[in-house]
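Exercise 7. Predict the joint structure of the components listed below.
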Amino acid sequence: MPRPGRRVVAIDLETRYLEALDLPNLEVRCLDIATETAEPSSFDLVHTRAVLVHILECAQALRNMISALKPGGWLLLEEPDVVSLTSAASDPADRDSMAKTIDAIVQVHLSAGADPYLGKRVPTLLRERGLTEITVEGTALVSHGGSAHAQCLALTVTKIQDILLETSRVSRAEVDRFLALMDDPDHWFMDCVMVRACARKPGG
Ligand SMILES: C[S@@+](CC[C@H](N)C(=O)[O-])C[C@H]1O[C@@H](n2cnc3c(N)ncnc32)[C@H](O)[C@@H]1O
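Solution:
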């Protein structure tokens, strides 16, 4: 909720849910951050969560976000890294089904030019672009089947399962087992690490 006297601009390619918010001081814009920029040098804070990891032109998107910051403004990036995404099942076959499904997801992303390991690279990307006062932390949730995180993973895999099978790195039976694990409240797994990096644009 924007504080009185503060202006918040919420940017996304898909603004359907943001439009429904109708909050004072909140402006919703449909904009592709890979190709367009908000007003240069205008914002005290630019924040994204789990956005750059989906953008092939991630470097350009980052440049556009930095350009929108006022000198001395802060950039807060929260981006996942798939490195920790593993099953804690007792049955090795279950762990294997999850590992192979995740491996297929990783391969699909890598071959499309996206980086599912982006999280760990975020501090380096900020340093290379001249940002200062970088602080970083990472959190990996341990979650279980049926949780919101598990449902999100299951929806993603259900949507792209044909593409995953085409990689030949996972079988139909293993994908089905993965989906069953994501629905099983007794199955625990470690989720992606969410890396949070905060840094300052020089000047100001
Ligand atoms: C995984 S969702 C994260 C949503 C939200 N930030 C959160 O943490 O719950 C990724 C979001 O990035 C948006 N997105 C992807 N590419 C984009 C682009 N080039 N420009 C602007 N938004 C983009 C998608 O529309 C989607 O809403």
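Discussion. The chain has a mean pLDDT of 95.
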